[in-house]
Amino acid sequence: MEESQELALTQLRTSVEKLSSSTEGYEKPTLMRFLVARSMNPDKAAKMFVDWQKWRASMVPPNGIPDSEVRDELEFGKICLQGPTKSGHPLVLVLCSKHFPAKNAVNFKKFVVYVLDKTIASGIKDKEVGDEKLVAVFDLANITYKNLDARGLITSFQFLQSYYPERLAKCYMLHMPGFFVSVWRFVCRFLEKSTQEKIVIVTDGEEEIKFKEEIGVDALPEEYGGRAKLTLIQDVLLPQTAPQM
User: Fold this and answer.
1) In the structure, how many helices (H) and strands (E) does the chain have?
2) Does 178 fall in a domain?
């Protein structure tokens, strides 16, 4: 690790203590995610870190959110957990035609946390490092106006930005219909530049070939030209369902 990074980490720890919190128990890779997310500014990274600690303590039980708390959302069968991709990251696939705007905003937020936590946890090998990332795919095939949920998309990406900094490796949008373009433009107003740079809208044959190459046939389900079977996230059994953070 470069000397400048070590200095930034030291300043981050000091700034966190000034905010009446502590970085004890958190490894360098975890702290570096917050620094990178805030352009290596220790004070801004410290605020983000402490805000995340408070949010995590109020939102998520120590052992993660159980299936029973998000069963209503799971029953739609809209989230699949695949992977690892060619880059070694777990792949979360969202079948948007099976999604409908949630009636309960709090439960939907819990569902987003459940999905992100379990996806990240599935990529942990032996011991959590702290810098594990995920790849997301939103399949918009066959969606209708009933499936449109700008608020749900915004919530999901804002959670990624605020509480899972530098966890997103890449995000692919497949089969985007014309009527969804205006919705997506609206959603993008709420996305940070660094998040938008990781999103690829797959529109033509050349981009589709590149998408398949980057994901890899072993992680890509058969329905998308790969060799893997679609696996619902609730059917994936893990030693732990949430990263220890």
Assistant:
1) 9, 5
2) yes
